[in-house]
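Figure 2 data, in text form.
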Amino acid sequence: MTIRRSELAIPVAEFAAALLAQQEVIPRAEVTADQVAELFPGTAVVVYVIQDQGNPVWTAKATVGEIAVTDAMEFHEGPLGAVAENKTPQVFEGANLKREDYAHLDIRRTVVSLAYAPLLVTNTLVGAIELVNFEQTFPDSVLQQLNDVAELAAPAIAVALSYESERNTSLQSISRVTQMYDLEKVFNSNLDLDPLLDTIAAKFHEVLRTQAVNVWMVDGDAVRLVRRAGNDPTVELESIESPGDGVPGDVSDNGEPVLISDPEDPRLQKRNVGVRVQGKDGAIFSLLAAPLMDRESLVGVVEATNRLDGLPFDEDDQFLLANVCETASNALHNASLLQAERKVEILETLVKVSREITSTLDIGRVLQVIVNDTQAVLSYDRAAIALEERGSVQLKAVSGLPQINPSDPTIKLLKEMLEWASLSNEEIHVTQHGETIDVSREASRAKFSEYFAATGARAFYALPLDDDQGALGILSFESHDPDFMTRAHFEIVRVLAAQATVALRNASLYRDVPFISLLEPVLERKRRFLALEKSRRALILAGAVAAVLFLAFFPIPMRLDGDATVGPVRKAQFMSSMDGVVKSVYVREGDRVHPGTLLADLEDWDLRSALAAANAKYQTAVSEMNRALAANDGTEAGIQRVQTEYWAAELKRAQERLERTHLRSPLDGVVATPHVENFVGRHLSPSDSFLEVIDSTQSSVDLAIDELDAVLLQPGRPATVKLDAFPTRSFPGEVRIVSPISSLESDQKVFYARVLVSNPDSLIRSGMHGRAKVLAGWRPVGYVLFRRPAMWIYSKLWSWFGW
């Protein structure tokens, strides 16, 4: 190798300009390494930087030549240690070096000489330049030129370190703010108290990075441990602590946060007694607790134990916990308001159901109200009632079924389960979570395993209906959600069961009374008929026979009628898929639109800025990758290729987000939202409805049919609709769908038939009312006229005799 002459000048201006063109440490280190390699061709160069002056370590930031740094170099070891100690340029001959002195270097050639120049700023060491020669030793002139480069590079790298430190600090602050914002969104996204408590425990555990987080809620004058995330063997769930019993009890008494960083603290020693006696792991060495305050009232305590990094909690952790507790308290306040509102709604519904079942002595009506209207109080998939009759259990009512088909396999299975449940005369509550069935007896577990597999249910709750006169029957609820019943639901269902028992007992007693009163008018009419003359009796009999034959065989069209309400066949509630402010609206109420029609635009300047930034980053990464490939630097090219792929993905994501600011119609129809143009300037959230588009070429008419006629409804039947707005015109249609469940309309159970009516002229509009008739076929006159009374009589006879 030929060493440059000592009088060769360093290109100061170009070198300084190249350093100033970069802001970060690695690019400036690379510029420095390239400059040294240019001064000393054939040598390998490494630029080291000390990032943390409090804990100094040699970190390689740039390399040039046939060399790579594989391991971190201890600060005071080897030749670099001598540079750190003397802070002066150093040259080491290869003959005086051992391989261990430069073990951090991955090289395949023999080292002849090493040269070092420290990077000093006001006598503070910020790094070093390492020069490796594989051919000959370095002359003394090398150190002077190397030191000239170091004098220019040192302040540049120091400034870059300061810049990166400030940037990282800003990023940490932004990350903390973002984290708090995300926590607030997560907490406020769920207003159900039980899931919210689970979320609070999990998020506290995630943010604080602790061994465990315990959530205690106020229970009278004490606090109860209701949720836990992580492992804390020192206290059991559902434990209760009063003031003086422990840290949570004390915090609930004085409302002051507690920070314990000393493992020998008496409070921790008391807490760890049980763990140490049993020889378990998980003793607490540091503890942090803060109150959950709702306005001025304490509602709970959050307790964190043992940081995962093994360090004790500090004041920063306490400050973070206090801030997160404030966010969680707001969410708990909202959840408590919702819970109180739901309790009021449940009580109102319970009163309504109670009024329904106690206002009638019709046992069928009572049964249907119990199994159907109870769904407003409890979210179940199926409810059923079975009554004791002549020593056996008979299934009487199933939710959603106006009539029970005994031959249905699911009905048979339900009847068998209710018969089995009635034998215990106790409440039965069985749930399945995953593959685990929560029941004590193995035989019961096998029975419910088969039952759940056949029905798809994951929860079964049954309670007996009995009073002082004995057992009356059994009431059951099923759901695919194993946790569909809470503690409040159990109490409400027990109250409902007591009221249902009274109503059913009264209806059963009343059912037996009318039998004698029905026979008396029949016998009286028989006596009057026998008292008539024979010829008159014959004439009456002939007329009766003729009337019977007419009623039995003469066919007439049977039509089912009911109130009709017009609605659109198809409609779409259009909502934005992202947060934003409406910039422009291109449609008005009544405009016809097609799929893909541009409805409105959201403000997109920030997204365009993000797109431009992502594109710039992508282009920069591509340029850096191409430069590395041109320089045959495989390592740097690989790094830049990863950066290129990352920014390509970010660029595509930014383009997709920008496209989502264009709100387009999902279907062909008419805009139905009034004053949609006034949405300009309004902020839209993903859950906010923007406008509604309906298909006006066809209209769907909801026809309410009494439940007694619902069995005659069949899809495909012709129908005729007469609307109040067009009293002289009839609109033909066809029944497309018959509702599988009933609805309560004016204290009457009805089933809805959806009639499809052609509307090419757009005369029929959503919301119009009228009457509609459905042709149910041709039936004898008697069937048409007396079907409903006959069904009523039959139901009465069936309820009396129960065949």
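Caption note: The domain at 190-341 is CATH 3.30.450.40 (Beta-Lactamase).
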